[in-house]
Design a protein that fits this description.
The chain is an all-alpha fold and 267 residues long. It contains eleven helices and no strands. The radius of gyration is 20 Å and the shape is elongated. The two termini are 23 Å apart.
Length: 267
């Protein structure tokens, strides 16, 4: 058995690139196969948000941070759409595999916990990037919003996909049933997204709420993308990169440990 294990290690090397690529491809093709639900539906949802706000308060609302309200709102809606779908991609994949009993198909191949983590994250990040690009094109055509710093915008889109993808995988491992997954989405993910400066500048908040908002990593994701898209933000985008990278690393390490120990994955 020991010789067999050594031969397998020599065969695949330090990283099982083929296995990692296959898992990433599976997670990507999984959402592309139902693109009307995973790509078109988020675009329609983002458009409805902007339309409703424009009809309700857009025309009478004064400028926010020196830009029209809809222009200020658009990057927040864009990032909210990205993170919700990155979370949904990894969490749904994991919890469906557990409920249907085919999680063994992912655990049995010669993939390390880190490779499994990266494979799932690749799908979440790919979905986030694709949705961000689609929404960005729509914003350019409808509102004339052109990214002021496309590199910073893409960095925060990738960070958003990685952070919420890792959080979604954590939630998928933790949840054993769909109602548990729904509870995590409703009571953790949705408040993080909505109470993060998506619809307002945190400068308008009372001091206590302002400080609490700055503890929310999603705030930095939205604020950083806003800077990349329209050139204004409540905080430094460089600080946002550090905070979001650290938060992604922390949740990634926790999820890696869950995969390594088989927490709620193995009998």
């Amino acid at each position: 058995m020991q010789n067999s294990a050594e031969q397998t290690a020599r065969r695949f090397g330090a990283v099982n690139w083929m296995g990692l690529y296959t898992l990433a491809q599976r997670e990507t093709l999984r959402f592309l196969a139902v693109w009307t639900q995973t790509i078109l539906a988020p675009l329609v949802t983002a458009g409805l948000f902007l339309l409703i706000f424009n009809i309700a308060i857009g025309p009478s609302r004064p400028d926010v941070m020196g830009v029209p309200f809809l222009v200020f709102l658009a990057p927040g809606i864009m990032m909210m759409t990205v993170i919700q779908n990155a979370f949904a991609n990894t969490s749904s994949s994991m919890v469906i595999s557990k409920v249907q009993g085919n999680i063994v198909d992912t655990l049995m191949p010669p993939l390390s916990p880190l490779e499994i983590l990266l494979g799932y994250l690749a799908g979440g990040i790919a979905r986030g990037i694709l949705i961000a690009c689609v929404v960005a094109v729509a914003l350019a055509l409808v509102l004339g919003i052109v990214p002021q710093n496309i590199i910073i915008a893409m960095i925060f889109v990738v960070l958003g996909g990685a952070f919420m993808g890792a959080l979604g995988l954590f939630a998928g491992i933790f949840a054993n049933k769909f109602d548990q997954m729904a509870a995590i989405t409703n009571f953790i993910v949705t408040p993080l997204a909505f109470l993060s400066g998506t619809f307002y500048s945190v400068q308008a908040l009372p001091p206590v709420l302002n400080r609490l908002t700055h503890l929310n990593p999603v705030f930095y994701l939205i604020d950083g993308l806003r800077y990349g898209m329209i050139g204004v933000s409540d905080s430094s985008p460089w600080l946002g990169m550090v905070v979001c990278s650290f938060a992604t690393l922390v949740i990634g390490v926790i999820t890696w440990h869950m995969l390594r120990t088989g927490y709620r994955l193995k009998a």
